[in-house]
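Exercise 7.
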Amino acid sequence: MNVVVENLPNCITTLRIELEPEKVSVVWDEVTSDFSKHARIPGYRLGKAPKAVVEKKFKKEIREELEKKLLSGACREAIQEKHLRVLSLTQIDDVELADDKSMKFTATLITHPDFQLPVYKGIVVPMHPTEVTDEEIEQSLNHLREQAADFVDMKEDRGAEMGDYIVVDYRGTIDGKPVEELFPKAGKPLSGNDDFWINMTPEAFFPGYAAALIGAKPGETRTFEIEVPADFPVEGLPGQKIQYTVTVKEIKTRILPELNDAFAATVAKDKTLEELRTMAREELGRQKIAGVEARKREDIMRQLLSQVECELPSDMVRTETRRILADVVRENQARGIGEDVLKENEQQIVGGAAENARQNLKSTFILLRIGEAEGIKVTQEEFNRRIVQLAVRYDMKPDKLLKKLDERNALDQITEEILTAKVLDFLAANASVTTVAAGV
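Solution. The predicted structure, written as tokens, is:
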């Protein structure tokens, strides 16, 4: 078999393959023999027609069967012979069968990007400290207290002060018209709300909003003007002056529970405050270690990506870009951002998604190449464990999930995810760590 390889842009490779007449003739005779056994030809008993007669009558069908038997196998053999890293076989064409039974054809492949692996062992990464300080424990406990806080009506006969929580009804207009009528993208919250809670801080709602309500008592209505900040993300609104009419309905004080054994028992059943501190220290330690490990891996990939330049398969980039875009749209819609805002920022969003897609794919190819160089593989046990984890996440039986993944041709993707994670663990274990001082 003679194979000529041509590398084209966008990770496309063509193979011009020529098969020897001897090999083709053997398969041709096998196929013709099969047809002879079952062919019904007038004037001949079943299976007794001469070879030449069978070839003449079924030439087209014999050739089609010949190509089925030879072409795919020849492609696999050529790929192995030339040590190509193939993602997919896209097409086979230009098939030529000569009178001497030699056969030529062209196979078009999508291959892995071609690049030189940088040095990947001993990558220098910073290691931030994972010790948990007493101050961090206190912050964690105070956060738990804030979550358990109670809000009670102000008993003093006074107006609202900074630090209070107030409940208000309000309306916002520009030149007498609701804000959302003039600026639909701003949404309803700028135009009005009832029973709205505000924490009286300088930056609450808009800078100056809370300050305008200092001293207001329940039942009191105030009218004031607020200038929209320059960084407000709705075109045309920055610099506009909104007239607000606000009625204070309630003034509330936040009461934090006392930090004692009784409070600890409400957070963790039958635990004392000291035991709660120990639990907080352990959890914060786990979070810090996980964060440091994640940062280590991010830094390793950032360094590897900066050292590799390569083309990427355009179809894969488009597919990954669409996947990222779908995630971005879904996340923004969940946050209440309308389609009009997304449309307005479409170019920026698409550009960001395309760049992320390229980085994701390049990262994967780098990790796969390192895995190949180091002989890192996915075991059946690791694959099965991953399937069980996914089945639990999606509340499905493992065998049913496995079937669905197989139907979607997604099993290789699962294997790839496990493999790239293993390679990243390998890189992290072989990194050269430099200690970073606390607070840096």
